[in-house]
């Protein structure tokens, strides 16, 4: 069982392994219940019951369900970053921004299809979690700029961050359209999104 990273929405960060594992169970339960009942029906009591922990354990980490969903979104971003990093490391001989873009999009699509709770929360876009100024797509774009800058041999400067922000916003909109059209993700719309992203990025990265 992998402990979650420190999340800014936590009332108190776990120190001991037992506490970290309890937090992981709470977030896993939150993700499962989001899939089963949706955000409106989510409650801290239901999460405590599903996780098999006292309700006080939930309130030790979170003041309300919004903070809990926000922490789940932050964990999703950490796991997404790990998946993209691993995918790029395994792609021997495939360097360059096109391979990086495929890894970024493919791993997001896979999490969209398989990760519990991800279809509602992803990185914080779908429900009103956290403060409005902490825009999830800005966090994703900054994370990708730092992660991919060395891979594509570019400095993670303001221009690169702005370019990744536009790409992330575009991909986010089109992927959500694909999953509204087809619960499994309309492959034709996804293909159009991939074509559009390649055309946009090649201007600056080729």
Q: Would you kindly provide a written description of the structure presented here, covering whatever features stand out?
A:
The chain has 206 residues and is mainly α. The protein is 68% helix and 0% strand. It has helices spanning 17-37, 44-51, 55-61, 65-90, 97-114, 118-121, 136-148, 158-181, 187-205. The radius of gyration is 18 Å and the shape is globular.
Summarize the topology.
Blueprint: H1 17-37, H2 44-51, H3 55-61, H4 65-90, H5 97-114, H6 118-121, H7 136-148, H8 158-181, H9 187-205
Helix pairs in contact: 1-2, 1-4, 2-3, 4-5, 5-9, 7-8, 8-9
| Backbone structural class | mainly alpha
Mean pLDDT: 87
Major beta sheet, specifics? Answer: none
What is the first-to-last residue Cα distance? 42 Å
Shape: globular
- Strand content of the residues, in percent? under 5%
Quickly count the helices. 9
The strand count comes to 0
Gyration radius, rounded: 18 Å
Unreliably modeled segments:
1-7, 129-133
Order of helices and strands: HHHHHHHHH
> Helix fraction?
55-70%
Summary tags:
single chain; 206 residues; mainly alpha; 9 helices; 0% strand; globular; disordered N terminus
In short:
The protein is mainly α. It has helices at 17-37, 44-51, 55-61, 65-90, 97-114, 118-121, 136-148, 158-181, 187-205.
